[in-house]
Amino acid sequence: MYKVKDIKLSDSGRKQLEWAEKHMPVLMSIRQRFRSELPLRGTRISAVLHVTKETGALMLTLKAGGAEVKLAGSNPLSTQDDVAAFLASEGIGVFAWRGESLEDYYQNMVEITRDGADLIMDDGADLHSFMHEKSSEGGEVLGGTEETTTGVNRLKVMEEEGVLRYPIIAVNNAFTKYLFDNRIGTGQSTVDGILRATNVLLAGKTVVVAGYGWVGRGIATRMRGMGAKVIVTEVDPVRALEATMDGFDVMPMSKAARLGDLFVTATGNKGVIREEHLKNMKDGALLANSGHFDVEIDVAALRRIATKRETLRIGLEKYVLQDGKTLYLLAEGRLVNLGAAEGHPSEVMDMSFANQALAVEYLVKNKGKLEKKVYNVPPNIDNFVAATKLKTMGVEIDEMTMEQREYVKQWRYGT
């Protein structure tokens, strides 16, 4: 069973998958092994992920490993309808389409878990939360994975409160995930989404980046590379200090609101840009969000203080405030890199989804051996992904000599 916008779009989706897979050699090598070994045979996997061509490559890899796979979208604006159609035609139980309502979003979780699930793959932890709060199937799940910082934070709280019902692999915490996906991938795809929605010149503009985690620093770095003047806002003193010593101006949002031409939120928290900030912004300021949920910009407040609202183009809305000032909201305040563009480049998602595939295999192999807690990706998986990626890029590195291996294992030798 499936529910997509138009199954006739499948041929277009096939072409999108072909392009993605050409640029995902690590995942393709895992698929080749999965196809011969079938390590996931008989496993039911339910996933809530952004339904992109890269996600499609992961789903087909899991299927090649012998799994029964069902997929729902993790954001109302991130589903690529042609990809969803192609996956449905390939036997994946897809319940996703661009523009689905909040009710559809949660109903699709019901659909992909209706017959139970052995493994849960999630992007933001909404499906994990659903399995714990609203589904009777949570006790039967042998494990799950989580793709995002936001989701991992939620799951750690569940672990601390003693309510987590199955082990989780925090894929987000793999070095080969957050150093590249969160930082480089989000940095580039955020710029991509903003430019697709607006086609504005970034050079010379003052860009305010809220949050200096891995996502925020990636955005700030790439904005500076495009010639923008970048201001960072933070609540964490260590990250604020790091941003300062990386050469960025750092100040509270109350001050930055008056200076910015473009605002990009990347904190994972709510109410980062509030009504008082909106009222103090320049005429013509642009508002974008790269955090997982659409809570960082107070869109309800923006609508409340506006006298006129108009959609100008895909991913761009105009709001005229009571004082005549105009503000522009991108992608409805949702993830701008997916709501107004295609998300991360395939080359980056190659590593993230290689971790996902191997984490799922790890959970199956260790069934019944893991506690109900959040685990990091095992170092051997992280190192395998990095080494394989380097090999596909034609990059060679040194190996330690036997003497060096022995040296780093001892404590007696000093100066």
Automatic annotation (TrEMBL):
It is an enzyme of class 3 (hydrolase). One of its GO terms (cellular component) is cytosol. Its EC number is 3.13.2.1. Keywords: Cytoplasm, Hydrolase, NAD, One-carbon metabolism. GO terms for molecular function: adenosylhomocysteinase activity. NAD(+) binds at residues 148-150, 182, 211-218, 234, 269, 290-292, 337, 344. Residues 182-343 form the S-adenosyl-L-homocysteine hydrolase NAD binding domain. One of its GO terms (biological process) is one-carbon metabolic process. Binds 1 NAD(+) per subunit. InterPro entries: Adenosylhomocyst_ase-like_sf, Adenosylhomocysteinase-like, Ado_hCys_hydrolase_NAD-bd, NAD(P)-bd_dom_sf, S-Ado-L-homoCys_hydrolase_CS. Belongs to the adenosylhomocysteinase family. This is Adenosylhomocysteinase. The gene is ahcY.
